[in-house]
Amino acid sequence: MARPRFLPDNFTLMLIATVVLASFLPAHGEGEVAFNLLTNVAIAALFFLHGAKLSREAVLAGATHWRLHLLVFASTFVVFPIVGVALKPVLSWMVTPELYLGVLFLCTLPATVQSAIAFTSMARGNVPAAVCSASASSLFGIFITPVLVGLIVVHHDGNSGASPFDSIGNIMLQLLVPFIAGQLSRKAIGKWVERNRGLLKVVDQGSILLVVYTAFSEAVNTGLWHQIPPLALLGLLGCCAVILALMLAITTYSARWLGFSREDEITIVFCGSKKSLASGIPMAKVLFATGPLGAIVLPLMLFHQMQLMVCAVLAQRYANRQRTAQGGQAGKGAKQAKATASKAATDAKPAKSDSNSANAGAGR
Q1: Could you confirm whether the keyword Lipid metabolism appears in this record (predicted)?
Q2: Cα–Cα distance measured from residue 78 to residue 219, given in angstroms and rounded to the nearest whole number
């Protein structure tokens, strides 16, 4: 039986089911701790498998793709804040002042890492460049975000809270160490990973589902949904949708205008249009220790869920286009080969006829 066109793909349905599950049965207490641990393990496994899959030549090529990294960096730390500030006169009436403060804060944050790489992999983009670009964004963001917050959000003293070096240590431990371990073990398990690509897909999608469940569970447990007017919540959803749509359009058409390949375009879109909840929550606790923390992090929570849902659909569409393009190229190659063989056969017929005529003439 054919699948109805209006029905979303399986992964999108799993994302919706995960959000519904977290809304009615959020993880809390020991369960929340267990799911956070499981999420960290899944993310580490994702980076380990990508490290084992990617050749060192591919990793070096991704690291030296400076035009791509520059565009992603500019989208994350320049275009995003400009969009947030420019849209304030247009969108601020839809939400409370505290909520739009949170909107400006999310515009200053670094890009998400694990989901950007997972979506890039699902969409068949440039994964080595995504690993380098997203990881660099997260590292540099620890220092750049506080400066941007001071410039466009609020003045703060930043005297309390954890050291930014703790965040760097966590990123190194959770992301870079597994990736390097995978690279070092590539000779031993690289061929096995290539033969079992389905396992990598399961880890890609599983890590995203775990991030969605744990993040949405945290939002439900904090009770923020009951602390703001319903109209302001709807307005906040509208603000997040407008900003996300603009950034997706800007990154997509910038990549095409600058002549990047389809694989690079995928990486730019998924790394340059996303914001990190994992980095944003700890930063908010440091930067807004005496401010309205709940209202400030709520836009980030909603934007995070929205970007995961939208990018899941985009990743599936990109992957389908890539498969269609590859199938079209294979079909075109087969047709060309057939046409060449047919032409060769046609050219051979006159030669055979001439040979027969020559023989007949010799007989006479």
Answers
A1: no
A2: 28
